[in-house]
Design a protein that fits this description.
nine-stranded mixed sheet, binds nicotinamide-adenine-dinucleotide, 17 strands
């Protein structure tokens, strides 16, 4: 008899849509015994919230997350709202005994992240962070090749996450450009994903040297009035508002296993849309991945005869590749939304089997340690030990 899991989703825009779609489709493709029920969706503004609920088939709406987490009929709280809300919602949800799915980055800073980790551990609930790029089959294949020893000793991690959606100076000042709401800019938004992939594929990061920069220091306030606009209009007298986060953040890293890494995040790389790219170089071979070609993994083996050596492209859509058996026959490609469905399928399975999903709040906290160490390094102009 399938078990029904009542879900409450906080946030109804970009990630709200991605998560809603995943709950709708997950049981169609992954036949687990734990079936999500789209019970309530939460946001602050009733009219657009109601429209989202109707479009995506949520049973109810709620305009206060405080009421949502106290409801007896909710089993899982999914937090897809800005970073300044993550700590309070997660701690309250844990104290109310709810399982939690949380968007990245975990928090505004490492102190909040630690508080959240303590809260879920004390409550004994399941917790997971939406570092969804782990759920790309080609990335899972990279992990398998490393575990099988095919890459050998890892020397280099070389990663960049490039987008271009804020190159235009007339792009408005949304919450993602304010430190008190977002914590950081491209760094927490994009480097957080690269750090998670690096921890997953290479190992823990020991020390970092960082640099951040702002290209555009002021942006027009959004036409649509929200709390942020109201606050900034009052402060600045209307018109323009200040960008208080990084536009780009790069860093060098030393891993605990001796590998060396480079990371670069920007939303100013014209022509790059969601260029989440990494290269791994080891003693026996190399790997290369780019999310804009997410079904492919490039693999080079030093163990082949020299006259046939060369990078080859593996189409990671075979039944032997992670998650693909739930989807389509080989060569029938998958896309962005599948990463969310794959991850939520794993979360449901862990709840069903009473095991802890990964990545979880421990990974979020370790991730936040690296994020904060990079910002500290950039500010001081020195190398910083992670978690030191
Ligand atoms: N996993 C990924 O690849 C990925 C991609 C984009 C964003 N994110 C993360 O997802 C989160 C949301 O980002 P987004 O791009 O969806 O933002 P968004 O601006 O598109 O949506 C934010 C939502 O949160 C709601 N919200 C804000 N404050 C709230 C409050 N106090 N109570 C209830 N609802 C509130 C807003 O109404 C809105 O619906 C962020 O943490 C972001 O970093 C993750």
């Amino acid at each position: 008899m399938p078990r029904q899991l009542n879900v409450a989703l906080i946030g109804y825009k970009f990630m709200g849509k991605a998560h809603s779609h995943a709950y709708k489709d997950v049981h169609f493709f992954f036949k687990g015994d734990c079936v999500p029920v789209m019970k309530v969706i939460c946001g602050r503004n009733e009219a657009p919230l109601r429209a989202a609920a109707e479009a995506w088939n949520w049973e109810e709406i709620e305009t206060s997350w405080e009421r949502v987490v106290q409801r007896d009929d909710i089993d899982l709280v999914d937090i897809a709202s800005p970073q300044n809300t993550h700590r309070d919602i997660a701690v309250a949800a844990a104290q109310a005994g709810k399982h939690i799915l949380l968007e990245k980055p975990m928090a505004l800073n490492v102190h909040e992240a630690r508080e959240m980790l303590d809260a879920v551990q004390q409550a004994g609930v399941k917790h997971m962070i939406m570092f969804n790029y782990r759920r790309v089959p080609a990335v899972g294949l990279a992990k398998r090749l490393i575990q099988e020893g095919k890459i050998g000793q890892l020397f280099h991690w070389r990663a960049c996450y490039l987008q271009d959606w804020i190159v235009d100076p007339s792009f408005p000042l949304i919450w993602k450009f304010r430190k008190e709401i977002a914590g950081s800019g491209a760094h927490g938004d994009l480097n957080a994903h690269l750090i998670d992939l690096a921890r997953y594929l290479v190992g823990e990061i020991k020390s970092v040297v960082g640099m951040t920069h702002n290209f555009i220091k002021q942006r027009p306030l959004p036409a649509e009035s929200d709390q942020l606009t109201t606050m900034l209009t009052a402060q600045a007298g209307g018109g323009m508002g200040e960008v208080t986060v990084d536009d780009t953040a790069s860093f060098l890293a030393e891993f605990e296993n001796g590998a060396i890494g480079t990371f670069e995040a920007t939303r100013f790389a014209s022509g790059r849309k969601n260029y989440n790219h990494f290269e791994i170089y080891g003693s026996k071979g190399s790997l290369c991945f780019n999310f804009e070609r997410m079904n492919e993994l490039e693999y080079y083996s030093r163990e082949e005869e020299s006259h046939t050596q060369g990078f080859r492209t593996i189409l990671a859509t075979d039944e032997s590749h992670p998650y693909i058996s739930a989807w389509w026959p080989p060569g029938h490609l998958i896309g962005y939304e599948h990463t969310f469905i794959n991850q939520i399928a794993d979360l449901l399975k862990c709840i069903e089997e009473d095991t802890m999903p990964e990545p979880n709040f421990y990974d979020g906290w370790k991730n936040q340690q690296v994020l904060d160490a990079v910002l500290e390094s950039a500010e001081k102009g020195t190398r910083v030990e992670v978690g030191g």
